[in-house]
Amino acid sequence: MKIAVFHNLPDGGAKVALYEQLKRLREQHTQDVYTLIADEGEFDLKPLCRKTFVYPYETVNQKASGWPRVSGDLRSFSTLKPLHREIAADIDAAGYDTVLVYQDRLMQAPYLLSFLKTPSLYYCHEPLRMAYEYGLRLTEDVGFFKRGYEALNRALRKRIDRTNARSAKQIITGSAYGAEYIALAYGIHPKICPLGVDGKIFTPSGSERKNRVLFVGPTTGSKGYDLAKQSLKRIAKSARPKLRALTPEKSGRFSLPRKQLVEEYASAMVLLCTSVLEPFGLTALEAMACETPVVAVREGGYRETIVDGKTGFLVARNPAEIADKLSFLTGHPHEARRMGRSARNHVINNWNWERGIAKLNEYLKVTAQNTDSSLNT
């Protein structure tokens, strides 16, 4: 088939998944990429596609305040929308069989979905979380006007996200938890197209394990770094492992190449995952593929990938319980190695990319046929 692919994803697990999916889809399809991102970094999509079309759009730091923040919001409601209309017209004119649409870091569900005439398959990892979750509410002590502005901004974005998402011919997602979340937010029951890990890239290195706990992600926001620090402090100093945090740069991009990331996984005793309601959690799979057991909160997608007591531990969001499991693994290296071997076997057998790509190909075919039997039922 001839497929158009759209994305405006930030760096992170979703971007890695996109790269891995396109790397495999190119074996069966002709694919062109339409994007707002000129510099893709380590996961450059150009070698995976026939053509790449970049539509320049100046982004504003999402943490900006004052006029830069207001200006960025206004442009996302005005300038961004006609740009997506232009992209949709270009795609429709090129005669593709279907369009594989990924999320837009500026609006979540892209405006593009509302303008496309070509059948579209929307790969949605999560709805606009700040519009639904109490934990992501505005907690700053701000004035009446700023609070009112934030409430209006979120309400508009929530409405746009839902409208755009429901415009897709089909919606798929990467986890059962994500499917439930989407059903709650959009009133649509998507199909699941599982993510995976390349077991030839993520492998145990054979190097000596260091007495440290690995944390991957920003130290602010919903990734749970504060909980990770609190948990480590519960362990006696004489036995306390070092907490090693791999954090992104201000741009959101990790400067650490994937080869070095693999070495970090392979040399740690355990990976600690404390994100709040993580939709999937690709880092947990990557670590397990490197024979590193995982301690993760019993929430979101972690419940689907980690086998409690076999490939790691699922725990309550409680520092004492987390500390207990970390102490057990770092204090019993033989048990940690046994769990690590089980973890890799589990990933190789159940979370390889071939399984997910087979599903993705199936859904692309159904979408291209533009049949009346929608996947969103």
UniProtKB/TrEMBL annotation:
PANTHER family: SULFOQUINOVOSYL TRANSFERASE SQD2 (PTHR45947:SF3)
Gene3D superfamilies listed in its UniProt record: Glycogen Phosphorylase B (3.40.50.2000)
Protein name: Glycosyl transferase family 1 domain-containing protein
Alphabetical list of InterPro entries matching this protein: Glyco_trans_1 (IPR001296), Glyco_trans_4-like_N (IPR028098), Glycosyltransferase_grp1 (IPR050194)
Domain Glycosyltransferase subfamily 4-like N-terminal stretches: 12-198
CDD domains: GT4_PimA-like
Residue ranges of every copy of the Glycosyl transferase family domain listed in the record: 256-345
Gene Ontology molecular function terms on file: glycosyltransferase activity
Domain of life: Bacteria
